[in-house]
Design a protein that fits this description.
238 residues, mainly alpha, 2 domains, elongated
C-alpha cells in the first residue's frame, strides 16, 4: 500500500491524483501502521517529513501546493499519534528548531501544532484509546515550554500577517489545556496587548484649544418686550 501511494505522489502531476495517494497513505497509517515493518515505518515517516519541509519552505511552493500541504500535515499528525512520544521523542524540539529557519516553514509548522492539539484534546475521544490519549496529553504538557517560547518569539519578532494569525489560532487551541501560569505569569498578555492594541503616542500632540467663553449679550439690541410710553393716549373724560 505504501509503495503504491509513494508511486502516485512522486509521478502524478494532477493535484487530485496526489490527494488520492495521500488519502490511501493516511488510511494505511490509521489502520495498518503496526503491521508495517519497522524499516518501512521509518521510511514513511522520513518521506512525509521531508516532503512537508520541501513544499512549505518557499513561499511560491507553499502557496501553489497549499491543499496538498494541508493533507500532508494531517498524514504527519496521524503518524505522530502512532509514533510519538515513544518512538519519536524529539518531535517537538525538531519542529521548534526548524521553525526558526524560515517564516514560511514556521507558518506551516504552527498549523501542524494546532492540528496536533485538536487531535489530542478535542477529537481523541472516539479515535484513540484512553491510555494513548493520556500519554499524548502528558507529552504535550511536558514539551509545551518549547512551544510557548516559539509562540512568544513569533509574536515579538514577526510582522508576517498570516504567520501571526495562525500563531494566535494555535494559542487559542492551547488555552483549553495549558497551565494557567503560561497566561498570567509570563509576558504573554503584555505581548498581545502591545502587539495588537498599542496605546497611541500623544506626547508630541498639541493640546486642544481651551473652550471659548459664551458670547455676552448685545446691550444695544432692542428689547423684545413691549415698552410703555408716557405719551400713550388716555380715554377722554366726560
Amino acid at each position: 500500500m505504501w509503495q503504491r501511494a509513494h508511486a502516485i505522489l512522486e509521478s502524478a502531476q494532477d493535484e487530485q491524483a496526489r490527494f488520492f495517494g495521500l488519502s490511501v497513505l493516511d488510511d494505511a497509517i490509521g489502520t495498518r501502521w503496526q503491521v508495517i515493518p519497522a524499516e518501512q515505518r521509518e521510511g514513511v515517516k522520513n518521506y512525509v517529513v521531508n516532503k512537508v519541509i520541501a513544499l512549505s519552505s518557499e513561499e511560491a511552493s507553499y502557496r501553489a501546493n497549499k491543499r496538498i500541504v494541508a493533507k500532508m500535515n494531517g498524514v504527519l499528525v496521524n503518524i505522530l499519534k502512532q509514533e510519538w512520544p515513544h518512538n519519536w521523542p524529539s518531535f517537538v524540539g525538531d519542529i521548534v528548531g526548524a521553525s526558526r529557519t524560515s517564516e514560511v516553514l514556521c507558518e506551516n509548522n504552527m498549523q501542524i501544532l494546532k492540528l496536533l492539539s485538536e487531535e489530542v484534546f478535542d477529537y481523541s475521544k472516539d479515535a484513540m484509546t484512553t491510555t494513548k490519549t493520556k500519554a499524548l496529553k502528558e507529552s504535550l504538557n511536558a514539551d509545551f515550554a518549547k512551544i510557548y517560547q516559539l509562540c512568544e518569539f513569533i509574536l515579538g519578532a514577526s510582522e508576517r500577517p498570516s504567520l501571526l494569525n495562525v500563531t494566535l489560532q494555535t494559542l487559542q487551541r492551547f488555552l483549553t489545556w495549558i497551565p494557567l501560569g503560561y497566561i498570567f505569569e509570563t509576558q504573554l498578555l503584555s505581548t498581545l496587548i502591545n502587539k495588537f492594541f498599542p496605546v497611541p503616542d500623544v506626547s508630541g500632540a498639541r493640546p486642544p484649544p481651551p473652550p471659548r467663553p459664551p458670547a455676552s449679550p448685545d446691550r444695544s439690541a432692542p428689547s423684545s418686550s413691549p415698552r410703555h410710553h408716557s405719551s400713550a393716549r388716555r380715554p377722554c373724560s366726560a
